[in-house]
Amino acid sequence: VDLTELSTRVRGQPYSGEPLGAFEQVVTARAGAGQGRGRFQAGGTVSALMTCALAAGMIDGAVLTDRDGFYPRPRLVSDPVEVLECAGSKYMAAPTLAAVNEGRERGYRKLGVAATPCQATSLALRGTNPLERDDWTDVVSLVVGLFCTWALEPRKLEAFLRERMDLTRIRAMDIPPPPAEVLVVDLGDEKTEIPLAQIRPLIPGTCLVCPDMTSEWADLSVGVLEGRPDWNTLIVRTAVGAELLERAVRDGYLETGTMPEAGLDHLKQASAAKKKRAIVRAGELGLLNNDGEGRKSMLRISAEVVERIMA
Ligand SMILES: Cc1cc2nc3c(=O)[nH]c(=O)nc-3n(C[C@H](O)[C@H](O)[C@H](O)COP(=O)(O)OP(=O)(O)OC[C@H]3O[C@@H](n4cnc5c(N)ncnc54)[C@H](O)[C@@H]3O)c2cc1C
Distance between CA 277 and CA 285 in Å, rounded? Predict the structure, then answer.
């Protein structure tokens, strides 16, 4: 990913390397009284935003991530009940974007996508018509990004957990914010905690060169609010995102509050640390800012911004 070029084309400004990327405001949020209850991961903000966008006609379908047995499964939905069925984080790299292609083929023209940072980056790249096709139309109208430090490789996680539990009993998983350092597996009648040190080897190598913790290329980005697991942190990034937030609050889908300064500082620190780690790792792999024919790069960021991030 050439972040300088992507930022210029998508946001009309060069990539700054600021920890949270470009944004208008940060608030706290959770599903409001007008939003049906579900097995939300945290405050239900992602589900509420998608439900509101569907009801308002801002999108004609939502590309979400459901579960198929143990594995995450992309799902294209247009009904509030189906949005609720997809609630909850599957802490695995998921082929969510396959459902965007399916939506295009089925005639959808205004899709909303709930996306991890890598998926949001991919959608932003696609939106710039990189292959310069004459018949190109972007069918994605809204991206609600998730915060993500890393995901897990599904096949490796399945093998790891299979040795420790009956996979059919898994109802949900959670990785609470630091200092917990555990993956919590909810088995219905009991919860099992697995130290993150044991599952870190299951992280795909690509996550380790990802510089984006807060889905910087999304319209809105949502994560867990530090110290309040039933609330979310919500970052508003674009005019589309601001319009949806205003509507969601007005129509009772969402309630919002003031983001605590300390929480915002910790979020910036964690995001900045992810950028540093990614640059170091890409450098170690020889995949940062290579020029010339045949010299592949995973990341391209201007030297000045690299220096600022590493300072
Ligand atoms: C792999 C992963 C890592 C994460 N890491 C962090 C983190 O480090 N810090 C943090 O604050 N938050 C992280 N989150 C986000 C957090 O778990 C919640 O998704 C977020 O706070 C939204 O909560 P909610 O209650 O609004 O979500 P809900 O209303 O329950 O909706 C969750 C939505 O996430 C989508 N989804 C679930 N799994 C995936 C997936 N694998 N890929 C794409 N979309 C998916 C579903 O479609 C659903 O619509 C991570 C999420 C994932 C999937």
Answer: 12
Name residues contacting ligand 1 (CB within 6 A).
40-47, 64-65, 72, 86-92, 94, 96, 114-116, 146-149, 151, 222-224, 232
What tokens were used for 242? 């601001």
Q: What is the mean pLDDT of each run of 10 residues along the chain (311 residues)?
A: 94 96 98 93 98 98 96 97 97 96 96 98 94 92 98 97 95 89 95 96 97 98 95 98 98 98 97 98 94 83 96 94
Q: Which residues touch 190 (CB under 8 Å, ≥6 apart)?
A: none
Residues contacting residue 98 through CB under 8 Å, at least 6 positions apart: 74
Residue 45, φ and ψ in degrees, nearest 5: -65, -40
Tell me how far apart the alpha carbons of residues 278 and 246 are, in angstroms, rounded to a whole number.
35
What is the CA(239)–ligand 1 centre distance, in A? 23
Tokens linked to 127: 């939106």
End-to-end CA distance of the chain: 22
In terms of Cβ atoms closer than 10 Å to its own Cβ (0-12, 13-18, 19+), residue 132 is exposed
Element (H, E) at 44: none
Ligand 1: residue whose CA is nearest its atom 10? 223
Atom of ligand 1 nearest to the CA of 119: 43
Q: Is the peptide bond before 179 cis (omega within 30 degrees of 0)?
A: yes
Query: Token pair for residue 24?
Result: 């208008």
Question: Which of 51, 76, 89, 255 is the pocket-test mutation for ligand 1 (most atoms within 8 Å of CB)?
Answer: 89
- Which atom of ligand 1 is closest in space to residue 146's alpha carbon? 15
Which residue has a Cα nearest atom 33 of ligand 1? 87
pTM value is 0.97
